[in-house]
Amino acid sequence: MRDLVLRMYWDDKQPPSVEVPLGDFFCNGFGARAIFNSLPIVVNPVGGMNSYFAMPFKKAAKVTITNEHPQEIEAFFYQFDYVLVDELPEDTEYFHAQFRRENPTKLKQDYTIIDGIKGRGKYVGTYIAWTSLSRYWYGEGEVKFYLDGDRDWPTICGTGTEDYFGGAWGFVNYDNGNPVQEQTYSTPFIGFPHFQVTDNTRSHIYDGAACPMRGFYRWHILDPILFEEDLRVTVQQIGHDGKALFERSDDVSSVCYWYQTEPHQVFPALPDVLERRPR
Q1: Rounded distance, CA 41 to CA 220, Å?
Q2: 3-class SS shares of the chain: helix, strand, coil, % to 5
Q3: What pLDDT is recorded for position 120?
Q4: I need a labelling partner for 15 at 20 to 30 A (CA). Which of 40, 58, 60, 170 fits?
Q5: What is the largest CA-CA distance in the chain?
Q6: Measured between alpha carbons, how far apart are the two ends of the chain, in Å?
């Protein structure tokens, strides 16, 4: 799911408006499947990945899948549903999605979810695949939205990564005050569908132990982030060790989803297949 790349082109425009590994587009990072239900993305047993994002175009749409896996894909099936209309407004905003990864993130430097967006549009969603490389709690970093000329200070600044994804005081179940396990969840707009500490993508002669992997989504469907000129979105790399905050460095991948008027800026080069490989 990291080795297949999904690209979408609207009205014969180059470069693509969507360029994301197939699994990550459907909020399934780490090359592993997580079953969940949300409003625009649904992943069902077994292998059913569904998107309900509106994707308007005026003349033409092209969607491609590129196989960068070492082996052939024996079976790949798909379906597109569409309607024809007489015309769309001249200022129609087109669907976009972009993948990024920093492995590892840089200490004391915010991770960039997206930057370089130019034009008018609305930001509608974030997926983050977060692999912990440091001990202790990881989710104190603020998610920041720099809108329409913001430089040093964002227009929107959250109170912590766990709050952005709809939690509070982490995601851990307690038994008589003792932490037991992390609790995954999925809702129409916010979710934590993936938690994993072993690699189950193949059999192992060892125990398959892996760095903790967590996947989160947040859809801004009812609360879109509107911009008129430009947009940049970042998240701090800050944790807590039970006594104090500390700067972290982890392995973070993300997909951002937005609509904007064309033309759009050229995306950064997609990491190659080995650079996308989950830890």
Answers
A1: 13
A2: 5, 45, 55
A3: 96
A4: 40
A5: 62
A6: 14
Q: Find the length of the chain.
A: 279
Query: Phi then psi for 152, rounded to 5 degrees?
Result: -80, -30
Whether the pLDDT of residue 141 is over 90: the answer is yes
Q: Please name the residue that has the structure tokens 């392995």.
A: 251
The residue written with tokens 């979408």 in the block is 8
pLDDT band, residue 184 (cuts 50/70/90): very high
Q: How many CB atoms lie within 10 A of CB 86?
A: 4
pTM for this entry: 0.95
- The pLDDT tens digits of the residues spanning 105-129 come to 999 999 999 999 999 999 999 999 9
Record the tokens describing residue 97, joined without a space: 């999605």
> Is 23 in a helix, a strand, or coil?
helix
How buried is 108 (Cβ within 10 angstroms: 0-12 exposed, 13-18 middle, 19+ buried)? exposed
Minimal CA–CA distance to 7: which of 18, 15, 21?
A: 18
C-alpha span between 261 and 199 (Å, rounded): 41
The Cα 187–Cα 204 span in angstroms is 33
Q: What is the pLDDT of residue 205?
A: 80
